[in-house]
Amino acid sequence: MDVFLQKGARAAQGKYAQMLFNELFEDYSNALRPVEDTDTVLNVTLQITLSQIKDMAWYDAYLKWDKDKYDGLDSIRIPSNLVWRPDIVLYNKADDDFSEPVNTNIVLRYDGKITWDSPAITKSSCVVDVSYFPFDSQECNLTFGSWTYNGNQVDIFNILDSGDLSDFIEDVEWEIHGMPAVRNVITYGCCSEPYPDVTFTLILKRKSSFYIFNLLLPCLLISFLAPLGFYLPADSGEKVSLGVTVLLALTVFQLMVAESMPPSENVPLIGKYYIATMTMITASTALTIIIMNIHYCGSGAKPVPQWARVVILDYMSKIFFVYDVGENCTSLRRVEDQDSKQEKTNAGAREEEIHEGGRRSLVRIKSNGGDLRKPLPRDANDGYTVPCENARDIVSCCSCYKILIKNIEYIANCVRRQKANHAKGVEWKKVAKVMDRFFMWIFFMMVFFMSVLIIGKAL
């Protein structure tokens, strides 16, 4: 019995709805603004839901009825193209498609209120500031208003203080932090009438995790390799190659950054970091070349200046714990010391033996034909004596020893010059090593402070 009553009620309601529709639209025109007095302002309320829906509501003075005369029928749904619709458009629209809105149904109430939920997909222009990319926040304005009516004819209001974000689908790149709405009334210089609009400000925050792990972190790790080029031994031959390789790697990442951000006059934060890092690596490579030139000065270079000897070799070497070659290798140094001591002992023994034998062999002749100091006889423990039996043999032996001493002095001078040149080269190598340590710590601090700066901007 209840089923038959419900079916009958729906049939009666449909009959009254058809009667109501015929009476309402018998003399209705959707081309004119639906007000009884042309001086009356038609109020339109606007609400944006960030889910492809634009809600508008207004009152039509010609579409009213007494619901009691139509069996309590208080609302009907009809196509939107049958009624007058306000020409509310997006002012800063950037879409090339200017097609008509989707012809969805409207909800018409007995008091003349029309509610139109219109789905729309649109593009708007937005000024993007990428100065802090990829840690940037953007504010995009969506300004809605009437295209032809002024504020004295069609006034627009926002229902809520912000857009509806409840149906927003999470985006992989952006976070929505709000969508406040503000009503503005603008008076242009050409016209005295006001032109109201409603501006929704979309506050966006970029998700930076993708860029941190794919662009920033590799650059950070690569930049720490630049100071290590100064720690690399000069004899390895890879100091300049390391700097060039790191520079090429950063160039590749710089191209990836340029491809992943929109064109802008402002240089982004990560771009500044890459440029600063590349400049630092270029400077480190140039300094490495200069230091290697100092390292390979050799014996032909001038001696180390006195100021460099005092500042670099005496003070800076102690600050940066730079020692001579082998001094920091204690075990190797100990072995070398033992070997040198053994060699000195053997050399001293040989010199003493040669000196003792020569002392026995030398004779001294007085100018007045005095006595000659003859060699001592040989015994079991002594060496051989010079077989000089007369004065002529003694003079011949003396001249031989003079030539021998002169040759020994020449050899000694050559050895001394060689040692001096070697010491000069060792000093220049030590200067180069101290400068390597100095610039290594300088560049480490530069990389650290640049990393702290960019992380501070991110937080």
- Sheet of most strands: 6 strands, mixed
Number of helices in the DSSP assignment? 8
Radius of gyration: 50 Å
| Structural category | alpha+beta
- Strand content is 15-25%
The quaternary structure here is single chain
Strands, total number: 11
In what order do the strands lie side by side in the largest sheet?
3-5-6-2-1-8
Mean pLDDT: 76
Please give the share of residues in helix.
40-55%
State the low-pLDDT regions, or none.
Answer: 1-11, 329-336, 349-386
Question: Ends: how far apart?
Answer: 69 Å
Order of helices and strands: HEEEEEEEEEEEHHHHHHH
Shape: rod-shaped
Please outline the helices and strands.
Elements: H1 2-24, E1 42-49, E2 53-59, E3 75-79, E4 88-90, E5 105-109, E6 113-119, E7 137-146, E8 154-158, E9 174-178, E10 181-187, E11 194-206, H2 209-223, H3 225-231, H4 239-260, H5 269-295, H6 306-319, H7 330-361, H8 391-458
Parallel strand pairs: 1-8
Antiparallel strand pairs: 1-2, 2-6, 3-5, 4-7, 5-6, 7-11, 9-11, 10-11
Helix pairs in contact: 2-4, 3-4, 3-5, 3-8, 4-5, 5-8, 6-8
Organism: Sphaerodactylus townsendi
Keywords: Receptor
Protein name: Neuronal acetylcholine receptor subunit alpha-9
